[in-house]
Amino acid sequence: MTNSIGELKDAACILAIGSNTTAAHPVIGFIVKQATRKGNKLIVANPREIELVRYADIWLQQNPGSDVALLMGMARVIVAEGLLDQAFIEQRGENFAAFRESLKDFDLDSVAQITGVPVAKIVEAARLYATTRPASIIYAMGITQHSHGTDNVMAIANLAMLTGNVGKPSSGVNPLRGQNNVQGACDMGALPNVYSGYQAVSNPAVKAKFESAWGVTLDDKPGLTLTEIMDAAHQGKIKAVYLIGENPVLSDPDASHVRKALEKLDFLVVQDIFLTETAQLADVILPGVSFAEKEGTFTNTERRVQRVRQALAPVGEARSDWWIACEIARRMGGKGFDFASPAQIMAEIARVTPSYGGITYDRLETGGLTWPCPDEKHPGTPILHTAQFTRGKGQFLPLKYKPPQELPDAEYPLILTTGRSLFQFHTGTMSRKVGGLNKFMGEELVEINPADAAALGIADGDTVRITSRRDTVAARAKLTATTPPGVVFMTFHFAESPANRLTSPALDPVAKIPELKVCAVRVEKLKQSVAV
Amino acid sequence: MDEIRLTVDGREVKVKKGATVLEAAQAAGVYIPTLCHDPDLEPYGGCRLCVVEIEKMRGLPTSCTTPATEGMVVHTDTPAANDVRRAAVELLCADHYSECLTCPQNQRCELQKVAAYLGITRLPYPKTTRTFPVDDSNPFFDLDRNRCILCARCVRACNEITCVGAIDLAYRGYQSKVATFGDQLMISSICKSCGECVAHCPTGALAPKESRRPTREVLTTCPYCGVGCQMSLGIRGHEIVSVRGKREDSPNKGWLCVKGRYGIGEFVSHPDRLTAPLVRRDGELKKVSWDEALDLVARKLASYQKGEVAVITSAKCTNEENYVFQKLARAVLGTNNVDHCARL
User: Fold this and answer.
1) Which of A75, A275, A292, B325 is deepest in the core (most CB within 10 A)?
2) Is the domain of A426 the same as that of A354?
3) Is the CB of B228 less than 8 angstroms away from the CB of A337?
C-alpha cells in the first residue's frame, strides 16, 4: 500500500476493485464499511455481488477480465470533463500526452460493451472518484491475477495520478496483500530477480555489495519464478526443490501439471507444520514450527514491520524454520549462517537493506515500523511518494485492452473465477484444522447463478462436475445471484475439490502472475453424487 | 482554543475540545461507574450510571454524552447521583442470573464491579423468575440472555465496528432482548462470528465457549491475511486458550475477524502437526533424527548443478526466515531460483 490502513477511514471516496475485502481482509473490510457509515463514498467494481456492494454508492459489475477498459473509460471521462488535477500532472507526471492519446481507443460505447457496465454508471463513477478527494483505491488479486494484470495495476496508477490522489493522506494506490507475510517475503528478496529491499541481482553494484557482505561469488542472472520452476521441473531441468511452508499442489494454476512436475523431481524437501498435499510427495519432510512457537517479524500490507513472539515451546522435535535453513547451509559449507537468534538476522538485514536500515528489535518492542526506514532515527514512512516517485516523475502509461487468454466458447461456455471465503484460508492447511470454521464452510460450494443452473438442470446442493481444458473437479453447487450469469465461482481451500486443477496457467508477461481469475469451464450435473 | 480546563471533584483537569465529562473525569483519575460506555463505541447514555452533578446545570446529566466545557465544575460522587446509580443497578441485579461463580465473566464482570462500588449487598426487589434458553448455536461463543443487561454494547459493536448489524435490541420494555433478524438462532443470522460483540460485552451474556483463563499473554502478529492484526495470545500450559486484539499502536485497533479470534489455537495444537523429521524409504515415510535428515538434505542438494535446484519459500514464514532462505539459495546453492507464492 502507498498509504496506511488506518487512513482509509478518512478517504472521502474509496474505489474497491478486484477485492472481496470483507472476506479476504476482514478488518480492512470493517474500516471501509466504517468510512461509509460516516457518509464517505464507496465505489465497488466487482463482477460478483460481494458483501461490500451492500455498502456502496455505486456498483460497477464489470465482466471478468475487463478492468483495463473500465478504468481507462473512467480516465477518459475524467479527462473529457476536465476533472483532472492539472497541477499534479504537470509537476509530478510525465508522458501524459501519449496517455491522453491512448484514451481515444476507449470510447464509452465500446467500454460499455466490453465491460458490460452501462455508460451512465461509468460516467457517474468517474465523476465521484475524481471529485471526492482524497480518494483511495484498494485492490487485490481480482486485479493482478490476469494475463494483463500488470496493465490493470498501471490503469489504477494512471487513475490515481490523473486525479492527484498520490502522496497525500487517505489517498493512494493500495494493494491488499493476501498472506500475513507476503510483503515481507518479497521485501526479503524471496524473489528470483532481487535481493532484499528490491535490489536487482543484475545490478553490478548490488552484486558486488552482496558478494562482499556474504563472502561469496553470486550469479547476476535472474532465476526462475514459481510457475517457471514448475515448468522446468516438468521438463527435467530442475531436479531438486527445497520447499518451505507452501502448498502449490492446491494453490498453483493447472495443479495437475504442478503435481506431475513435483513427482518428476529427483529430490523434494518439504518443510511445513502439517503433512500438506505437497508434503505427501516429498522425499524428506522437515517439521517447522507455527508462528506461535517462534520469534521473528512479519511485514503487513501497509509495509509495517511487526514482531512475532514465541508463546509456546515447539511441538515434538519441530524446529524454527530459520534454524533448519541455517543448519542445511552450514552442513553444505555455507559461511555466514551462524545466527543465534532472529534478532541477529534482522541486524544483518538492516545492514544490507536500505529500506530496513533503521529496523531493530529494540525499536520494534514498542510497536511496528513502516519501511522505508533507512536509519535508526527515522520514524518510518506511512505514506509513499509524498515529494517524488521512486523513479522521479510518475509515468502515465498508454494502455490497450486485452481480453483474457481463455474465453468461453461452445464447449466451455462459462467463466470460472476463484477467490477466498471468510471462513477458510488459502489451501486450508491451518483453517481446516479448526472445527468451528469448518462448520461455517466445510466443503467447496460452486456458486452458480440460478439462471445458468436452471438451464443446466442443476438444483441447489446437487453435486456437479466442473471441467476446463485441463481437468475435471466435482463439488456441490450453491445457487446464488451473488455470481452473475455466465460466471461460476469457486474457492481454492478444499483438496477434495481442487479448483486450481481447472485454472489457466496463462501468465502476465511482466509479473508472471497466472490468470487465476478467468478460465473457461463447463458445468454438468453428476447423476450420482460421488466424487469423480 | 483546543484545550478546555474544568474541575472534577476538586481536581483541575485539561482535556481536548470535544472530550466528554466522563473522559475528563477519567483523565483526572476519577472513577465514574459505567456499563454501556465503551471507548471503542459512540456515546450511548443508556445505563444512567455515569450521571453526575454539574454546577449551574439542572438535573443529573449523563457524563458520557455531555461535552466538557471551559470552567465546568463537576461532582461525581454525590448522594443524588449515587441514588440514581443504586436504583439502576438494583433493578439490573434483580433481573440478572446471579450464579457468579459459574459465570465465564466472573471477576471480570463490569456489573460486579459497579455493584461493589455502590455497596449493593442485598436487593430490595424479588428476583425475576423467567429463564431464557441459551443460544449456543454459534461454534465459538454462546449468547446467554439471562446474563444480559441490555447495554447494547454488542449491538453497537456489530453496527459501529463491523457494520454487519446481525443483532439488535428487539421487543419493548420488559420483553426487550438482544436478537437477530427474525429472532432466529445466531447461527442462522448474517453474523460473521468475528466476536466483536463478545469482546465488548461487560457481563457473561456473550462469552466464548472456551472459557478457561490464560496464565500469561504474549503479544504477537496474526498469521492469516496481510492486515497484520496485533493480538495477545492467552496461554495456559501448552495451549492457546484466548486471543485478544491490541488497541494501541496496531493496524487493527483491537479488532479481529473470526479466523484471528477463534481460528488459531486449534491448528497450533492440532494432533496432526509434524513432530519429527521424516525420510522416504522404500516408498514409506520413516522418522529419522535431525542429524540424519539434515545431512541427507545437505548431501543431496550439493550433488546437483547450480541451475538444477530451486528454493520455494513461504509467505507464512518470518522476514528473518525468508532472508535466510534466499541467502541459502544464492550464497550456498549458487542460484537465483528462489520464489514464493506472492502471485497466488
Assistant:
1) B325
2) no
3) no
